[in-house]
Amino acid sequence: MGHSGDGPKIDLVKFGKHPQNENERLKVLRGIVANTQYCRSGDYTIEGIEEAIVDCREGVEGEDEMEEADECIVVALSDANMKRYGITVDELSNAMVDPEGEVTTHFIAIASLGQEAVDIQSKLEPGHAHFCNNTSDMPKIIRELILSVST
Fold first, then answer.
1. What CATH number does the domain containing 13 carry?
2. Which domain holds residue 106?
3. pLDDT above 80 for 112
4. Angle subtended at Cα 61 by Cα 31 and Cα 106, rounded to the nearest 5 degrees
5. How many degrees, rounded to 5, is the angle at CA 131 between CA 130 and CA 132?
6. Global pTM?
7. Chain centroid to CA 50
8. Phi and psi of 72, rounded to 5°?
């Protein structure tokens, strides 16, 4: 799921219905690009993370039961421009905690302005905040965070 100025929950791919081929993957990417081009200004990072945790833990309401999983992981991607929207690191940190303790949440700040992403990374739980200044590093970051959860 995604989030934008339009709301905290924008369905991109339904649980259990991931794209099966290149064409389906391209449709997902086109949907993401279209949303970023036409969405309203605003930020639903906190609400998006909270909803993703619930969906990951409980499955999407109205859908079939999720199959058992070894791990439940939420990865929040952001430009880390939190100050612009009045979001504090404490709010972000609190949103990333699953009250049930079943979901692990990671935050990846992508090429943010100035020092803000580095500040966020230093204040969140060690190993749960990542800074990606170069998008070619994203696969390595994702691999490392998945491995850290599975061990």
1. 3.40.50
2. 2-150
3. no
4. 60
5. 120
6. 0.81
7. 10
8. -115, 120
Domain count, the chain: 1
State the average pLDDT for the chain: 83
**What pairing do the DSSP bridges indicate for beta strands 7-10 and 2-4?**
antiparallel
Alpha-carbon distance values, 2 to 67, 115, 127, 147 (Å): 22, 25, 22, 23
pLDDT tens digit string along 72-92?
A: 889 998 887 888 888 888 999
**Distance separating alpha carbons of residues 79 and 83, to the nearest angstrom:** 11
Distance CA 44, CA 140 (A): 26
Residues 6+ apart with CB under 8 A from 7: 44
Helix (H) or strand (E) run with residue 22 in it: helix 22-38
User: What amino acid is encoded at 127 in this protein?
Assistant: G
